[in-house]
Amino acid sequence: MTSDSLYTVAVIGGTGPQGKGLGYRFAKAGHDIVLGSRAAEKAEAVAAEVTERLAGAAGAGQVTGKANEDAVTAADVVLLAVPYDGHDELVASLPLAGKTVISCVNPLAFDKRGAHGRVVNGGEGSAAESAAELQPEAVVVGAFHNVSAVGLWGEEEFLDEDVIVVGDSVEGKQVAIDLAASVTGRPGVDGGKLRLARVLEPFTAVLISINRKYKVHSGIRVTGLDQGH
Amino acid sequence: MTSDSLYTVAVIGGTGPQGKGLGYRFAKAGHDIVLGSRAAEKAEAVAAEVTERLAGAAGAGQVTGKANEDAVTAADVVLLAVPYDGHDELVASLPLAGKTVISCVNPLAFDKRGAHGRVVNGGEGSAAESAAELQPEAVVVGAFHNVSAVGLWGEEEFLDEDVIVVGDSVEGKQVAIDLAASVTGRPGVDGGKLRLARVLEPFTAVLISINRKYKVHSGIRVTGLDQGH
């Protein structure tokens, strides 16, 4: 960890592999997690599973489960880890005003030629930008698009990857940069403005192609950062 | 090097920093390079500069300079390292039929909020796909989008990055995968179909943002590849 900031994070889509895995990693680093799902019972069951996994982890945060709207209300940071199908309707329905919202939503499509990015708003949009438009009183950033769910739930202390964070709010990005250390052991990398989520979201299609070809769970790392100051 | 294949590579845009740097690296690894420019004299001058840089490099290939069209005619592999402005007209004008064409063209735009990808064909296109449409008898792949020109011309034996290669032809991709070893010391990474150039091209905008923020020359590395077989 490189930051002392501890957050209460609602994970919308917290019962899916990406949300569950990120919630586990954040909790292991001391953040309190509220897994959200459409049905509170489902969220509670997965929260119990994550809590069991954390047994004996020193300094771990609390993991609970609630219905999505209650999860958001209980948190100051909201991670959107939902499928792109139905994304806009769900985001519009949640009480996100005043929250820091981290989107790791990947608008992808699959056909016989493999995975590829879905075109959002004629190429001038992304899931993260849609969330920002739908919730103008939320601070929306994009991050955690490219981390492997398998790795998140796996045994390695940290993933050998970087988390690239994009957004138009420095303070909002800092939250995701802090949380990234839970996953990678080092802060997230500031990748620029929110519109660059247009690149990070479909980049996952490249990693899926690599995974299929090489039978691995790939990620990306930013090289050259240690040249700086 | 992981391959014994040696190519004659025409570098269109060979007098720009990316083209010159890639030509230098390819020649250092034994490939013959024909730098191309609109004016033969300019290409010849840069070829002389690269040749001087290669003095004493054991096993280096020949580096010559020609006008673009003559460079293409002299080569079996053509690297497109040109600005996106004027790209389509230039590509349409070159005798590329039957050639393996590697595009590292990045359609980027810059405004006060930084670098971002230009929308090609309503979000359903890329420079590489445009080249493939304009030259249906060429084999077009995308690669080398994200390598830093500063690093290419620098002193390090190999760059600590990966070259991701996309394309619809396995044979075409193999050429770029081979050539990547000149730059990184290991083969390029097969990143899937040509349409995924839509992701690799604008990813350079993320790296430019990182470079500005952290004052570095960043690149990307694919993690997890050593898990495979």
Automatic annotation (TrEMBL), chains A, B:
Keyword Oxidoreductase belongs to the record: yes
Q: One Pfam family this chain carries?
A: F420_oxidored
Key words, A-Z? Oxidoreductase
Identify the Gene3D superfamilies for this entry: NAD(P)-binding Rossmann-like Domain
Every copy of the Pyrroline-5-carboxylate reductase catalytic N-terminal domain together lies at 8-107
Q: Which SUPFAM superfamilies match?
A: NAD(P)-binding Rossmann-fold domains (SSF51735)
Which superkingdom? Answer: Bacteria
PANTHER family under this entry?
Answer: DUDULIN-RELATED, F420-DEPENDENT NADP REDUCTASE
What is the designated name of this protein?
Answer: NADPH-dependent F420 reductase
Q: Which organism is it from?
A: Nocardioides vastitatis
Q: Which gene encodes it?
A: npdG
